[in-house]
């Protein structure tokens, strides 16, 4: 498990839960608006990673103070030992939330079938026809659609979310993206953080207010 960052406490990353946040190292997308650019490379020097045992030790000490652990990235489903790590969290009594770009539906299926997830958040970055523009790499939209179906049908609390980047998404784009979230699934928008954008040309773009949450 390659861990690039750890936040000991969050009140906003897992709805209704006090959580720690684990940031996995490595992502298969290169979204121009990404604000975690340091987590994108899959291969980094060992000294830049946080040992998984160190994170688990810190979490062990905080049992009774934390409700949950959020696994984000990077893209967590790229981690070969993700399921083992989640099993360890389960053994410690934590709820688990997974943030994902949806590119690996088979991993989502396995984690859900194993009962390792309590909440899933998947990014919907753009209308399907424009997805590669916002992901920054070639994308298999069919696999993303499969992930949407898997998550929506899982019976697990979940949400789909879009980052509002006015320089990249028109109002029509946002309407189309919102429409890709299945009926009955929670959908929300999240603020764009221009000062940390991977593409420096976006750094001066004013961040808009979020759209209303749709249940």
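^ Assign residues to that structure.
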């Amino acid at each position: 498990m390659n861990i690039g960052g750890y936040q000991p406490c969050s009140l906003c990353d897992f709805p209704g839960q006090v959580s720690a946040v684990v940031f996995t190292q490595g992502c298969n997308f290169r979204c121009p608006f990404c604000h975690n650019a340091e987590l994108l490379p899959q291969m980094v020097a060992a000294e830049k990673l946080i040992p998984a045992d160190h994170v688990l030790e810190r979490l062990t000490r905080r049992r009774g103070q934390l409700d949950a652990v959020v696994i984000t990235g990077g893209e967590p489903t790229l981690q070969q030992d993700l399921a083992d790590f989640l099993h360890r969290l389960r053994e410690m009594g934590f709820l688990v939330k997974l943030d994902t770009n949806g590119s690996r539906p088979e991993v989502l299926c396995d984690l859900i079938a194993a009962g390792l997830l309590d909440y899933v958040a998947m990014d919907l970055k753009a209308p399907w026809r424009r997805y590669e523009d916002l992901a920054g790499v070639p994308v298999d939209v069919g696999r993303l659609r499969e992930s949407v179906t898997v998550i929506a049908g899982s019976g697990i609390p979940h949400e789909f979310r879009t980052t509002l980047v006015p320089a990249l998404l028109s109002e029509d784009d946002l309407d189309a993206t919102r429409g890709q979230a299945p009926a009955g699934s929670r959908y929300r928008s999240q603020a764009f953080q221009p000062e940390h954008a991977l593409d420096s040309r976006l750094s001066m773009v004013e961040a808009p207010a979020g759209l209303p949450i749709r249940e």
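Residues 207-215 have pLDDT under 50 and may be disordered.
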